[in-house]
Amino acid sequence: MFDDPQFSRRGVLATGAAALAGFALPTQAQESVAVSQSADEPLFKISLAEWSLHNAFGRDGKDNLRFPWIAKKLCGIDAIEYVTAFFKNQAEDKKYLTELKVRCDDLGVKSLLIMVDGEGHLGDPNEAKRAKAVDNHKKWVEAAKFLGCHSIRVNAHSSGSRQEQMKLAADGLRSLTEWAAPHEINVIVENHGGLSSDGDWLSGVMKLVDLPGCGTLPDFGNFRIQGDQWYDRYKGVTQLMPFAKAVSAKSHEFDAEGNETKSDYYKLMKIVLDAGYRGYVGIEWEGGKPSEIEGIMLTKHLLEKVREKLSA
């Protein structure tokens, strides 16, 4: 079902097998230990963001159906985060969503959230366009509910002065969050370029919205505001964690010791844990080399190493 010729040509399964061969994967006995440890509630759990496979995956929904299998069988990860780009036309296709849910259930894979892009600006200064953007997101709230997710991830893009953008973004987020509340789906904002990558600005937006169903998804790497202007990632994560309902462990490159070269994962995860967060931390590999599966596995092993050290 999964290993069809079209998918194999993209090289994911082949590179995945090669990547796994290079790592010391758990034996059956070790897996039993891991299960007993998880019962004692680890400091945090590890999930996989679909964007980690953005070069391999097509946009017609077919590869999205394979995502749960790849996460579980190739990467040993049983919780996933979808991206709308890979099944943009299937948001309201109940047959498709049912097939996706069945595959997850059969594999014991948990659907956590849907990252929504391309549905308009929730902070658009034009009131009609802002309302349209809110409406465009509603189908993804319903899809998230159907799949058993806890949240949709949205963007807070706007235009105007700093304060104007804060008020506009808060207005759109408040409207969507209020609509999503009866569905028991959170609306969470990632630092994703522009003012949203300014931790002070985005935390201010959260305070303006002031709803329990609206929160943040701090991303370790997305703190470029524009051009060469970067916000301090450690300060930003610290500011966004009080509102966090998910965390994204962005990775681009690893050194010979297996550490991410742009982000100090030990420092960042200590910030995350000090905020009281004990949920999933999503792997989001965005590097060029090595392969996507290898990058995912390197990120996973670093998170496991950090977790072991911080648990001591």
Give an overview of the whole structure:
The chain has helices at about 5-10, 10-20, 30-40, 60-75, 95-105, 125-145, 160-180, 200-210, 235-240, 265-275, 290-310; strands at about 45-50, 80-85, 110-115, 150-155, 185-190, 215, 225, 230, 245-250, 280-285. It is an alpha/beta fold and about 300 residues long. It has an 8-stranded parallel sheet, with helices on one face. The radius of gyration is 19 Å and the shape is globular. About 50% of the residues are buried.
Secondary structure tally, helices: 11
Element-level helix/strand string = HHHEHEHEHEHEHEEEHEHEH
Distance between the termini: 42 Å
How confident is the prediction overall: mean pLDDT? Answer: 90
The class by helix and strand makeup works out as alpha/beta
Strands ordered across the widest β-sheet: 6-5-4-3-2-1-10-9
Major beta-sheet overview: 8 strands, parallel
Low-confidence stretches: 1-11, 17-38
Indicate the percent of residues in helices: 40-55%
Shape: globular
User: Mind telling me the C-alpha Rg?
Assistant: 19 Å
Number of strands: 10
Q: What percentage of the residues does DSSP assign to strands (E)?
A: 5-15%
